[in-house]
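Box 4.2: Ligand-aware structure prediction
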Amino acid sequence: MVQLAESSYAFAIAAAVTFLWIPGVYAGNTTCASNQLDWYTSVVGETPCDTYQRLRRICNPDYEVPNFRPDTPGDQCDDQVSACCCNTVAFQLSMLCMNCQYDTVDGDISSGIDAGVGTYSLYQGKCGAGTDNSLPADVQRATCNENIRLDDFLYGGWDDGSWFYIFTKQNASKDHAANNNDTFTHCPDQDSSSSSSSSSTPTALHTGGGTDGVETTVSINPSDKSAPTAGKDSSSDTGNDKRSSNTGAIVGGCLGAVAGFLLLGGLFMFWRARRNR
Ligand SMILES: *[C@@H]1O[C@H](CO)[C@@H](O)[C@H](O)[C@H]1NC(C)=O
Ligand SMILES: *[C@@H]1O[C@H](CO)[C@@H](O)[C@H](O)[C@H]1NC(C)=O
Ligand SMILES: *[C@@H]1O[C@H](CO)[C@@H](O)[C@H](O)[C@H]1NC(C)=O
């Protein structure tokens, strides 16, 4: 009896340790681990993870920045309406957010996390062709309506799907200096003051709003490489499995509860066995 109780106790402990620690299951963090991304945060007014989350919430209001995988790409464009993330702007923000989460050393000594050739395709997954160096017109309008400040350098990037932290940082710094931080020209009336009202509950697209002057702003984009293809991706993959972080959190919570009950049961049997001895 004592033997049984003790082994079940040990099992419960093992189960609890196994199930309670599931990396990547819990909601992530938009706080940067160090001051490495201050060059971005000080000009934009929020961390790149915040910007990335707000951009993706235009399409998926439930999106939360996860704890990024340690390998690039740290996150995936897997929303059923993928127009918000199936583009190089979101990919660049995801890489910046990854650096934000993983760059734990203060100061200017880190070389950052780069992405190899083809990483953008991996990030895209099954989201379709997407848009390079631009956002679909309706998503661009939505970012302006919700005052999501997308810095001009985010509309650049590399054609082979790679990405480089130091270059991006230096490119942005040059652009900030050259333009007095007035580098948010893809929306009308977005000035350099970083007093962005980071509305924490972005709503759905305001497709009706802002018909004046918005189209001209969109056409300013240096998107000579590919034309925006807005319609395609939203309908192509509605049957995808929804590998959302919410599901992960729920599963993790259930497993944690089961492990907790096992632990309590083991403790109870252990206590009873000792009392009956
Ligand atoms: C996010 O990070 C900050 C600073 O490291 C920490 O204080 C906070 O608890 C974290 N929040 C979550 C939800 O992990
Ligand atoms: C560098 O920044 C400029 C201006 O923001 C942008 O047009 C260009 O595409 C960027 N280059 C790269 C490689 O991202
Ligand atoms: C641009 O922003 C940086 C960081 O906040 C600041 O140090 C710099 O003075 C700003 N430049 C201008 C011209 O406002």
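In the box above, the bound molecule is 2-acetamido-2-deoxy-beta-D-glucopyranose. The first helix runs from residue 2 to 20.
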